[in-house]
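hiii, so i know i said id send this last week but things got crazy w the move. better late than never?? heres the sequnce for the chain we talked about at the cafe, plus the structure i predicted for it. fair warning i was half asleep when i ran it
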Amino acid sequence: MKKVLPFILLFSLFLSCKSTYLDSKKSSVILDIKKENDSNAFVNLKNYSSDFVFDMKYATADNFLKEKVYPCDECFLRVKTVKALIEANKSFIEKGFKIKLYDCYRPRAIQKKMWRIVPDANFVANPKKGSIHNRGGAVDISLVDSVGNELNMGTKFDFFGEEASHNYQNLSDEILSNRRFLKEIMLQHNFKSFDSEWWHYNLKGSNNDEVSNKKWRCEN
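okay and structure toks below
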């Protein structure tokens, strides 16, 4: 029995670390997120709204890592995050704008890969602790106007200088107004801002969710 117990513990640990795959298949119709009862389940945002603009930077080499780390440009999030995000986007649409997404849920395996490329906690969350992105509760976003032009936010996404901070005020009135507009609407819909990154928003309470390693296969 003494020999069996360590084996059971080791096998259990293996299962807990093993990733499962999310369904990347696209629905032929837009689904109603309000009908999803499991608030912690992961779903593909693209199946629940066609009103977002997607520019998933880590599915390309156009990012601070200078390397593609996602197999394809999917946007998975927990149901509760999608519900809040869709409501926020409705508010923006009423004012003539849409949310543009740069990053959504990030599997822990991808976090480890990013850490190997840039092992600096000033730029990448240490995968041992994990980020809110790994929990399915974070989004990196900007706004576009009615013809698809991105609003001037002062810096590019994933710019890590002080100019990217919400607290940095040495910017034009236009840029400060755009950042304030983005922040005010997101805070109204149960999100929290991240002081040093104007683009990063966390769903309130999502820090209590488990770090996940659910990956996705790309559809041809």
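btw Residues 169 and 176 are 7 Å apart (CA to CA). thought thatd interest u
miss u guys!!
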